[in-house]
Specification:
The complex is a heterodimer of chains A (117) and B (115). Chain A is built from no helices and eleven strands. With 117 residues, chain A is mainly beta. In chain A, a hairpin with a 3-residue loop joins strand 6 and strand 7. Chain B contains no helices and eleven strands. The chains are: A mainly beta (117), B mainly beta (115). Chains A and B meet through strand 4, strand 5 and strand 9 of A and strand 5, strand 9 and strand 10 of B.
Chain lengths: 117, 115
């Protein structure tokens, strides 16, 4: 079946460094991609999303890059802080022919980001 | 997200017992979801509902049932709990935006242990 996966299960960085978390997807029908952050004991928290008609989208300290040619998604966190330590999930959301979301997310396994002071 | 609440937050039960997990939202969203998370894994979809009269099976619906009592309430039931249903359960809500995207917002989770 279709799947969303991550290249690296863990990532350790020093405070102030930039972090890059990668994700591969296989469902060519996916139209919408989302990054979530999950802190210990909490539910996933929306970080940033991107539609398939975009290559890049920036938020506050975060940037998502989408490479449809190789079906690859990445999350870049600038000036990583200890509060960024969490598990990061990518998720894909296929859309119908009209571009409206089916609403069914497929999640990757997650990457554990640890930020050292 | 405080707009999505789940009760109970923790529950320990025995094999064979019936369990109900409840989810309420004040976001006014039509779409609601139940997910399960196992250690080291991403979330897997159990059931979802796009409005009060709509119920759909997700990836792993066997052993579970749901009820959409109102737009704001979506409950998950385990009719006869078994140990491999021990997991973290999340409720989520969403609504389709004007550009067709559908961001899901998650509750804090319910940790269920079946002995």
């Amino acid at each position: 079946g279709e799947s969303v996966g991550l290249h690296l299960p863990t990532l350790s960085v020093q405070e102030g460094d930039n972090s890059i978390i990668n994700c591969a997807y296989s469902n060519s029908a996916s139209d919408y991609f989302i990054w979530y952050k999950q802190e210990s004991g909490k539910g996933p928290q929306f970080i940033i999303d991107i539609r398939s008609n975009m290559d890049k989208r920036q938020g506050q300290r975060v940037t998502v890059l989408l490479n449809k040619t190789v079906k690859h998604l990445s999350l870049q966190i600038a000036a990583t802080q200890p509060g960024d330590s969490a598990v990061y999930f990518c998720a894909e959301n296929p859309a119908n022919a009209g571009g409206t979301s089916y609403g069914k997310l497929t999640f990757g396994q997650g990457t554990i980001l640890t930020v050292h002071p | 997200d405080a707009d999505v609440t789940q009760t109970p937050r923790n529950r320990i039960t025995k094999t064979g017992k019936r369990i109900m997990l409840e989810c309420s939202q004040t976001k006014g969203h039509d779409r609601m979801y139940w997910y399960r998370q196992d250690p080291g894994l991403g979330l897997r979809l159990i059931y979802y509902s796009f409005d009060v009269k709509d119920i759909n099976k997700g990836e792993i619906s066997d052993g579970y049932s749901v009820s959409r009592q109102a737009q704001a309430k979506f409950s998950l039931s385990l009719e006869s709990a078994i140990p491999n249903q021990t997991a973290l359960y999340f409720c989520a809500t969403s609504e389709v935006s004007g550009v067709g995207t559908d961001t899901q917002y998650f509750g804090p989770g319910t940790r269920l242990t079946v002995l």
